[in-house]
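step=predict obj=DNA polymerase III subunit chi n=149
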Amino acid sequence: MATATFYIVQPDSPQATESGLADYALFLSQHFARQGAKVYLQCNDKAHAEQMAERFWQVDATDFIAHNLVGEGPRYGTAIEIGHCGVKPTWNRQLAINLADNHTTFAKAFAEVVDFVPNEENAKQRARERYKLYRQAGYQLQTIEIQYP
């Protein structure tokens, strides 16, 4: 059964900022890729996808994991593929991490989806809508509060 996990962002956490959430998505992408998953990172648009790709280049060399934008890179892709609304992910991805505000139609191609519930009220409402859409699509849903020191 397909699962969707929503990470709840606490108001005073490092993830409460746009930059902090992007760093956490990078961390999760690397975490799942190291476990052998082929990860797809869904962004709002091309500029957002390119910004996320650049973040992957900024990590320490020991933490680097190969990644590519949709349509770039090797024929069968890298461990992490970064896309956006309007492009289709490679067929061989098992897990999607969603950073896009309102787009969930891509998710039906994945057995597992990770999404976020931010603190800002409009963003929180959009997350609730995505939650409903995943539920209607038959995903088993769970929520996790992001823990931080």
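step=describe
The chain has one domain: 3-145.
step=end
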